[in-house]
Amino acid sequence: MLGSTHGTLTTDSRRARVVACGGQRPGPAVHDRVEDLDVSGRPLHADVPDLTRFFRPESVAVIGASDAEGRPNTGITRQLLDWAGRVGARVHPVHPTRPSVFGLPCVTSVAGLPEQVDLAVLLVADPLPVIGELAEAKARFAVAFASGFAETGPAGAEAQERLAEAVRRSGLRLLGPNTNLNAFERFREDLPGPAIALITQSGHQGRPVFALQELGIRLSHWAPTGNEADLETADFLSWFAEQPEVGAIAAYVEGLKDGRAFLLAADRAARRGVPVVAVKVGRTEAGARTAASHTGKLTGADDVVDAAMRQYGVIRVDALDELQDTAALLARARPPLADGVVVCSISGGTGAHVADLATGAGLRLPRLSPAKQAELHQWIPEYLSVANPVDNGGHPVGDRRGRKIIDAVLADPDVGVLLCPVTGPFPPLSDRLVRDLVEAAEETDKLVCVVWGSPAGTEPAYREVLLGSSRVATFRTVGNCLTAVRAWLDHHRFVGDYRSPFDDAPRTLSPSFRKAEALLQPGRQLSEHAAKQLLRAYGIRVPREQLVTSAAAAVRAAGQVGYPVVMKASGAQIAHKTELGLVKIGLTSASQVRDAYRELTDIARYEGVGLDGVLVCQMVEQGVEMVVGVGHDDLFGPTVTVGLGGVLVEVLRDVAVRVPPFGEDQARAMLGELRGRALLDGVRGRPPADADALVEVVLRVQRMSMELGGRIAELDINPLMVLPRGQGAVALDALVVCR
User: Which UniProt keywords apply (predicted)?
Assistant: First the structure.
């Protein structure tokens, strides 16, 4: 199979713990629901539907069933009958005029069904009228294949909303509309080990992952969610995370129906250590437009989607072959014993090339110790480098020395991954090499990866030996191998330290809320003075300042604030004071203050800008200018941003974003994502900035966003001057737009 192939790997220790618990993962039951809300009134726990009877029904109604040759419904009915036979379900065809379908007695309507059905499959152009009938019959689940809904535009979206409302009233759960038969595919039942559960919003895009079964990799479920009028990606993600046979969840996502539901589902998977790998369409404007036309959902600002996935350990990849390789490795590989990667090759050029790529991918390639290098030189000529990468020269892998080299590398406690690139078949050396790798992998708990570079992929060493191994992870490209290994290491680091941010999310309003609430002006932008009062209510430091309405008062204020001072016009509709000349800095005397007051008020009068006064502010000079802000995303709600501030925010756009709730670890991780992070550490003799104070401001702004998020459309603290270490941070300017 071109682009991605694997061997199978044994069950990881997380699954072993499941077996020790009698086949059930520790934690809440599959169908639990905890009514627990944060301060914004949003849920803190996933509502997980019990989908057992969807995937394993005891009774199925096929509405619109047919056995007439040449009819589209006939092929679908035949596939459903085959599937029902495999899962042991009773089938009841429903058709208004046919006495039987494929030999099964047919009822004329849903009302004539002989029993309550677990699943109703709707082979009708308009599913809406059938939903009420199914509600009367107390059906549990339904699938609607019909298209022509939200994917077609506003009229279709209205039709889909009518369908969704009917489903909400009915009490049943609906898959679709605009879905397909992928949930009823034939899954191989002879494959061992943990399985991949698959979620797709486009059935065709799931085919490469489904085809992994041809390489011995097990799939347990496939949920083709379609337009998600009711059941959505988050529902299947939450339920799959509870299933003991699922080792990883792979998803192809075009748009998210509910951002919060997705995060809660990802949180449930993270709590259970179940890796989630996703392709999310929408990195480009063109991709976002196409996704919207396909599924009729919002795609969300991609940087927010990316950050949200990262917060909850969802591994985002770009291509379907990466989805295959990464999901397969994460489903099958045991947890790492070390994070060191050693590249072992028969060619110095190959080893150097792969080592460069691995380092660029963020993997750690430890230099082997002098003692280990001396050990390897027992079997490898002295003139070859074995520090890492290990160049074995080729000939040693053709005899007993090859296995000794492999075992020696794997015995190093700093090594967790042995990566062997085989750029092309070269029998008999390559045959002996892969046999040694497979045998060594059977005797170690460390990860052995082979990249088989032959474009043919028909060689026995590959098809029979490597793919026949339950322990070697086999790839067809170096890039996919490195992506998968990095994701595997990152996942286990993440779940090892994971603490759900929902556990610590505030449930009650802070005392700051009432003070802040009184300052808000619905539908208006606050003046800088009012915006800073809002910040002060949440414990965010602002400069010493006074709001004055006369030149004399300005002089008195400057004396109390302390020279030098900054003077600014303050008004509810002033967004860019500097561009209008409404800021004066470095004023050192009473005469300068008087002149500045007159000039500021004259400019405001000329520009037609209303003022509530002039601010006389403490001048704060030494520090790093940052920006901290709150925005609103259509999918996830309030978001918090931090980045380089001042004019650099518009020039460099060096920012990191998170979706509340998040803890101190994520706030610090935001700083680590900035390209300009070194400015906080101190450059060119400047002292390190107070990063702890910056983190504290980010967390306080997050609390504000959660408590006031529904009332604030935008908040920007720019610049936030981060002073030298131990001296704090000061919000020099702020803009707040109320809803």
Answer: ATP-binding, Ligase, Nucleotide-binding
